[in-house]
Amino acid sequence: MKVMANGERAWLLEVTGAAEVRAVAAALRLLRSEGGPPWVHIVDIVPAAQTVLVSASNPAHASALQQPLSTLTGLPRQKTSVGDIVEIPVSYDGEDLDAVAQACGLTPEEVVAAHTDTAWDVAFGGFAPGFAYLTNGDPRLRVARRSEPRTAVPEGAVALADGYSAVYPRRSPGGWQLIGHTDRALWDATLEQPALLMPGMRVQFRALS
After folding, report:
1. Per residue, what are the HEC states of 75-92?
2. Dihedral pair phi/psi, residue 158, rounded to 5°
């Protein structure tokens, strides 16, 4: 793992892929809550596709984290997900469902079963407020993005692309494959915690009859 300075109060941890991102972020969350100094001085942990940004409360606390972070790879990694499972009901009526099924060598019914049988991990957020990249689903559901993105994807669209699943939190352009939609809100700016899904949570999709 590569540890790089990011301003005066943060470190950027560069790892090998999504699985290690989940493990490192989970270890850091546990250390922040139970590990004592210097871990208690972490104010933010931001996972991405291949990096984890760790911010401290001030430059001195950030400096104290450098050496412990550089040896983080030696920590046990059994627990990669924390928090509750969030259930999201889905109507599987997406425009791309048949094309996804064909690309995966499945029937549309098998795509729905594969999408709902496994709980997905919330790996990181990005693209838009409330948009969460979900990983660790059924490996048969790996499909490419659309060759031509849509100019408008409706709010609540449930989608697949490049091994990830996601729910579009608001109407926006997008190039993912649409397999269904949900009425559950992914983002509410009036709440203390606006995003429904946060890294470390898990998502269980449920098919509506």
Report:
1. CCCCCCCCCCEEEEEEEC
2. -100, 130
